[in-house]
């Protein structure tokens, strides 16, 4: 039955009304924290420069009928960091974003992202923000637990914090010892029953370990998976105490990835190097590369130290309402 059929809409409407209450309450909470809501443009010159991120492209014509390739952004990150460079200190947005090649119960090619930045603050502060947002969503949905499939978790309880390396060690893998040694990691994965691909890079192998063992072993949560290996954090700074890892965490609840947070990289030269390496990898795998946003790289050199987090708002509502699919909490699911 299509989503706009009266009976279907009537079934979905309580969840959609909860979505509105959660959005309103989150906006109010950010206001109490001294944040300014911003509204970044959706059409951009570069949609992002991560190897496996896929964008929607279009052609924009100026008044002289000159055609230029533009993209629907996959994240408002570049624009918001430019605003930090311009002098903003605490900003957030609830933005529509687009990612091609995504679909299924937990994914959509168009969805809403809650993204916020704190200039001059450490990324651990974002963990407190995430805990507050979970409580807000549960309160506005009128529930005491989040639910997804057979999993439940307590959005009012403390967030358990663990590192990627610690979780890998639980499965017999000394992950950080294999950095730059994909052969060693491939051997360890084979020993624990994960078959590596013939052409797998270290990043590919890490992804197999993450999805096959680490994420399923986190439990219902909520849990903070912290200190990602440095090669897996393209826009995060390396940890000053251990440069093998980056200041990056992900938030999981009911086994669902909800948020991705960074202590932001502000070294423009290093960022250019990482972007170029990722686009070289993209060219090798997909036969395509995206342009670099030169204005972003220029702004990065002026950006203050900051921490930022991106949270999938539709997924948050899905967990708070117990909806089985992301499309159940979108007013008009994308075609």
Q: How would you portray this structure in words?
A:
- The protein is α+β, with helices and mostly antiparallel strands and 335 residues long.
- It has one domain (6-159, 221-329): 2-Layer Sandwich (BirA Bifunctional Protein, domain 2), CATH 3.30.930.10.
- It has helices at 6-32, 77-85, 124-141, 164-169, 182-191, 202-214, 268-286, 294-300, 313-321; strands at 36-37, 43-44, 56-61, 67-72, 90-98, 110-119, 146-148, 151-153, 160-163, 223-226, 248-253, 256-263, 306-312.
- The strands form 3 sheets. It has an 8-stranded mixed sheet, with helices on both faces. Strands 2-4-3 form a 3-stranded antiparallel sheet, with no helix packed on it.
- A hairpin with a 2-residue loop joins β11 and β12 (256-263).
- α1 crosses α3, α3 packs across α9 (313-321) and α7 runs antiparallel to α8 (294-300).
- The longest helix is centred in the N-terminal third of the chain and has 27 residues, at 6-32.
- It is globular.
A few lines on this structure:
The protein has 335 residues and is α+β, with helices and mostly antiparallel strands.
Chain-wise SSE layout:
Layout (H helix, E strand, L loop, with lengths): L5 H27 L3 E2 L5 E2 L11 E6 L5 E6 L4 H9 L4 E9 L11 E10 L4 H18 L4 E3 L2 E3 L6 E4 H6 L12 H10 L10 H13 L8 E4 L21 E6 L2 E8 L4 H19 L7 H7 L5 E7 H9 L14
Parallel strand pairs: 1-5, 9-10
Antiparallel strand pairs: 2-4, 3-4, 5-6, 6-13, 7-8, 10-11, 11-12, 12-13
Helix pairs in contact: 1-3, 1-9, 2-8, 3-9, 5-6, 7-8
């Amino acid at each position: 039955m299509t989503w706009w059929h009266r009976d279907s809409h009537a079934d979905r409407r309580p969840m959609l009304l909860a979505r509105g209450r959660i959005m309103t309450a989150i906006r109010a909470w950010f206001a109490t924290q001294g944040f300014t809501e911003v509204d970044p443009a959706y059409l951009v010159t570069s949609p992002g420069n991560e190897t496996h991120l896929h964008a929607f492209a279009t052609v924009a014509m100026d008044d002289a009928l000159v055609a230029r390739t533009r993209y629907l952004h996959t994240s408002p990150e570049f624009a918001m960091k430019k605003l930090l460079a311009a002098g903003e200190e605490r900003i957030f947005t609830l933005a529509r974003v687009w990612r091609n090649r995504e679909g299924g119960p937990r994914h959509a090619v168009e969805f809403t992202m809650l993204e916020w930045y704190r200039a001059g603050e450490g990324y651990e502060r974002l963990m407190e923000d995430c805990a507050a947002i979970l409580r807000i969503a549960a309160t506005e949905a009128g529930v005491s637990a989040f639910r997804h499939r057979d999993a439940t978790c307590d959005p009012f309880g403390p967030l358990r914090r663990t590192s990627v390396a610690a979780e890998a060690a639980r499965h017999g893998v000394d992950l950080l010892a294999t950095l730059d040694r994909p052969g060693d990691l491939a051997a360890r994965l084979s020993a624990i029953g994960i078959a590596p691909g013939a052409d797998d890079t270290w990043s590919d192998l890490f992804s197999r370990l993450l999805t096959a063992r680490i994420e399923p072993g986190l439990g219902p949560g909520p849990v903070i998976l912290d200190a990602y290996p440095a090669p897996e954090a393209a826009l995060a700074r390396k940890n000053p105490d251990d440069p093998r890892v980056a200041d990056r965490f992900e938030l999981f609840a009911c086994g669902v990835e909800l948020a991705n947070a960074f202590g932001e990289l502000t070294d423009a030269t290093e960022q250019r190097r990482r972007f170029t390496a990722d686009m070289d990898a993209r060219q090798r795998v997909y036969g395509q590369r995206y342009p670099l946003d030169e204005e972003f790289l220029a702004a990065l050199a002026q950006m203050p130290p900051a921490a930022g987090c991106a949270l999938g708002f539709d997924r948050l509502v899905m967990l708070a309402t117990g909806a089985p699919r992301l499309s159940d909490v979108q007013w008009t699911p994308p075609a």
